[in-house]
Fold this protein.
Amino acid sequence: MVTLWGILAVTIVGFVALSFAWRTASRRWAMPCPAALAWTLEGGLADFIAGTERTLERMRLQPGQSILEIGPGPGRLLIPASFRILPGGQAMGIDLQPKMIDRLTARAKAAGASNLTAQVGDATRLELTDGSFDLVYMCTVLGEVPDRAAAIAECVRVLRPDGTLAITEIIGDPHYQSRSKVRQLAESAGLIWLSEEGNWRIYTARYRKP
């Protein structure tokens, strides 16, 4: 007879195996977090581990801003960010995976984030108008993009003059990008270093478009 504990054990083992397979594959190929694991990026525990509140503070969000997150997943950062830019602000998320966009849209609606829109898209070919945003940001996403220089160039293109690009990286993520690598990519794209905040485990670097 199958017990509840048995089902739970099988579920945990299955999740660990799937997560391990994704992380292992990610070290060889640039792969986004599977939509099937989106739930691991939600809730209070995920917020605590990934430092959601601290990251939002480091991005210097302001009311009235137009912001874009590349690779928002289920909206761990984008949904609370959309409230921080009210009144008058608009938030958008671009993700490669349609199922992530569906999950984000549903969660945003449930949270009452009426100023948030989301669409499927490629970080290296954003179908957005030049100079559309005050802030573009990525959190543990840059390393998932095979052509990182192209992704940064697209971020610069859609930023308004004096707009900000914010990159957050967390140790332990299989796609982790070092501070020096991020700075090299940003400055090669013509961005100007503004600040870098954090510690050995998590940091947010900010760059300004001239």
Notes: The longest helix spans residues 4-26. Residues 52 and 77 are 6 Å apart (CA to CA).
